[in-house]
Amino acid sequence: MSTLRITLRAGERIFVNGAVMRVDRKTHLEFMNDVTFLLESHVMQADDATTPLRQLYFVIQLMLIDPAGAAEARALFDRTYPSLLAAFSSPDIRSGIQDVVDLVQRERNFEGLKRLRSLIPLEEIVLKGDAIPMPDLKSIARPAIAVGVR
């Protein structure tokens, strides 16, 4: 059996299987079995869920923080993500949303949150009306290779 060890700073909170815990001093926790948890630094407040992807993040977060209400949050997720796929034209965001859907369907909610966090900067660019920057093709292009012999 593998264990997971995390370190918390004084005053930091952690959400474990729906319970909120706060430590009064720096401490280490070692989880000896499967557990659903969310660190305070990954928790989004309701007031911060101001964009479509942030709202989706908040819904997935509810599945982790409140296991008793997870079924209701999952139903909301299932109703929400199709409209997001339809609303965004950015291939990067659409692909990322599909990754999140796949993760949530496999009950990998924490990984889904992590994937959503990577999409939020792209969403901000799209919502500002800017184009998503393209990678520098010169840095990834392969040099031409001569084929054939004379």
Plain-language structure description:
The protein is α+β, with helices and mostly antiparallel strands. It has two domains: 43 residues, no CATH class; 87 residues. Strands 3-2-5 form a three-stranded antiparallel beta sheet, covered by helices on one side. Strands 1-4 form a two-stranded antiparallel sheet. Helices cover 47% and strands 14% of the residues. The chain contains five helices and five strands, in the order E-E-E-E-E-H-H-H-H-H.
Defining key terms:
alpha+beta, 2 domains, two-stranded antiparallel ribbon, 5 helices, 5 strands, 47% helix, 14% strand, disordered C terminus, flagellum
Q: Gap between N and C termini, in Å?
A: 62 Å
Mean pLDDT: 84
Q: How many structural units, i.e. domains?
A: 2
The major β-sheet equals: 3 strands, antiparallel
Q: Segments where pLDDT lies below 50 for 5+ residues?
A: 137-150
Count of discrete alpha- or pi-helical segments spanning 4 or more residues: 5
Protein name: Probable flagellum biosynthesis repressor protein FlbT
Organism: Aureimonas flava
Family: Belongs to the FlbT family.
Function: Has a post-transcriptional repressor function in flagellum biogenesis. Associates with the 5'-UTR of fljK mRNA and promotes its degradation.
Question: Which helices and strands appear, and what pairs or packs with what?
Answer:
Elements: E1 4-8, E2 13-16, E3 19-22, E4 27-31, E5 37-39, H1 52-65, H2 70-87, H3 91-105, H4 109-128, H5 137-140
Antiparallel strand pairs: 1-4, 2-3, 2-5
Characterize this entry briefly:
47% of the residues lie in helices and 14% in strands.
